[in-house]
Specification:
It is found in: Cytoplasm. The chain is α+β, with helices and mostly antiparallel strands and 372 residues long. It folds into three domains: 115 residues, DNA Polymerase III, subunit A, domain 2 (DNA Polymerase III, Chain A, domain 2), CATH 3.10.150.10; 126 residues, DNA Polymerase III, Chain A, domain 2 (Roll), CATH 3.10.150; 113 residues, Roll (DNA Polymerase III, Chain A, domain 2). It is built from six helices and 26 strands. The strands form three sheets. It has a 13-stranded antiparallel beta sheet with strand order 5-1-7-8-9-6-2-3-4-17-16-15-10. Strands 14-11-12-13-26-25-24-18-22 form a nine-stranded antiparallel beta sheet. The chain has a four-stranded antiparallel beta sheet with strand order 21-20-19-23. A hairpin with a 3-residue loop joins strand 20 and strand 21. Helix 1 runs antiparallel to helix 2. The longest helix is centred in the N-terminal third of the chain and has 12 residues. The chain starts with a strand and ends in a 5-residue tail after the last strand. 36% of the residues are buried.
Length: 372
């Protein structure tokens, strides 16, 4: 195998591939990237057995072939090469080495046989549709903060992607929850997605997929089966196993009868919560919200470290209410708001609180209160 490739194209492909590779693994081949050169392009494939990413880049291929080499080391080498350099990679199967040349720099890396590299079995996808990158990015970005990190409730360790009934018909929906907060995000249902089975997309896949969704104009091809989900652009294909479990009935958690309405400037609210939480104890991070007519007082009282209080002018016309929340949860939810105002809907100090962006029902958040 021998080919030449522009440094920028090589770095982009290798960086995407190596980020999937697990830092610590007991199977040496899983630390490697499979490089396959043929025709006028090169394919870089990496996997951790749960996610597989394949990145294609244009190249001048002198001799077709394939080999595997350490993804981390190759990425580090390419990253340190000068911009605009032409990089030539050639492998010598007899001695098990890949040589990398760029200008006056020469490197030799140990290789492992391509036959040892595990390729994820292709799946028959029951549902295929495409959606703009911006739509998918919004769905996953706004939901992912609520993914649970508790391994025992493994079915909450991802984002539940499914078709649901929205305000005005069927929608494509992402939901994530850890039992303390919940995010439910809707988008218009793409053509072809109608019969899609609901799947739980794992946390790592959500993070890796973010790199495919940078270009707002790009259409992403999505394929879904009972066990796998695939996201593809013209250059990158990411295939992931889905979490084998049943996502709980989240609709029962979303309160319907919350009538006490607070409207507040989202960024002002987030900054105020951040300031008063500075003195809250690390363990509880509790912030108390005291609501009266058009007035909100945020306060923290931590016997060990001190106290803080801040008043905000808000729109609130219901009876007085005192309710406590984990400051981290409030900040994460407030940071999701793209519009100017956040609307909180309360019932009582012991019931879940609903939050949305103005009157937009396509993004709804629920946060559980805590005793303060």
């Amino acid at each position: 195998m021998k080919f030449s490739i522009e440094r920028g194209a090589l770095l982009k492909a290798v960086a995407q591939a190596q980020s999937v590779v697990e830092r610590r693994n007991t199977i040496p081949i899983l630390a490697n990237v499979l490089i396959e050169a043929e025709g006028d392009s090169v394919q870089f494939r990496a996997t951790d057995l749960d996610i597989e990413v394949v990145d294609r880049a244009p190249a001048m291929v002198e001799k077709a072939g394939a080999t595997t080499v350490s993804a981390m080391t190759l990425n580090e080498i390419v990253r340190k090469l000068p911009d605009g350099a032409l990089v030539t990679l050639s492998d010598n199967a007899q001695v098990g080495r890949l040589s990398i040349e760029a200008g006056r720099s020469n490197f030799e890396l140990a290789t492992l046989p391509r036959e040892d590299f595990p390729v994820m079995a292709s799946s028959e996808y029951a549902t295929n549709f495409s959606a703009p990158a911006a739509v998918l990015r919004r769905l996953f970005d706004k939901a992912k903060f609520a993914i649970s990190t508790e391994e025992t409730r493994y079915y909450l360790n991802g984002v539940y992607l499914h078709v649901a009934d929205g305000e005005s018909g069927k929608v494509l929906r992402c939901v994530a929850t850890d039992g303390h907060r919940l995010a439910r995000i809707d988008a218009l249902l793409p053509e072809g997605a109608e019969g899609m089975a609901g799947v739980i997309v794992p946390r790592k896949t959500v993070g890796e997929m973010r790199k495919l969704l940078e270009d707002d104009e790009m259409q992403i091809a999505v394929s879904v089966s009972e066990t796998k989900v695939r996201f593809a652009t013209p250059d990158i294909t990411m295939t992931s196993k889905v979490i084998d479990g049943t996502f709980p009935d989240y609709t029962r958690v979303i309160p319907q009868g919350n009538t006490r309405r607070l409207e507040v400037d989202a960024s002002e609210f987030a900054r105020a919560v951040d300031r008063v939480a500075t003195v809250s104890s690390e363990r509880s991070r509790a912030v108390k919200l005291s609501l009266d007519e058009d007035r909100l007082i945020l306060s923290v009282n931590a016997p060990d470290s001190g106290a803080a209080e801040e008043e905000l002018a808000v729109a609130y016309a219901d009876e007085k209410l005192e309710i406590g929340f984990n400051a981290k949860y409030l900040l994460e939810i407030a940071s999701q708001v793209d519009r100017e105002n956040a609307v909180f809907l309360f019932n009582s100090s012991g019931d879940p609180t609903l939050m949305r962006e103005g009157d937009d029902m396509s993004a709804v958040y629920v946060v559980m209160p805590m005793r303060v």
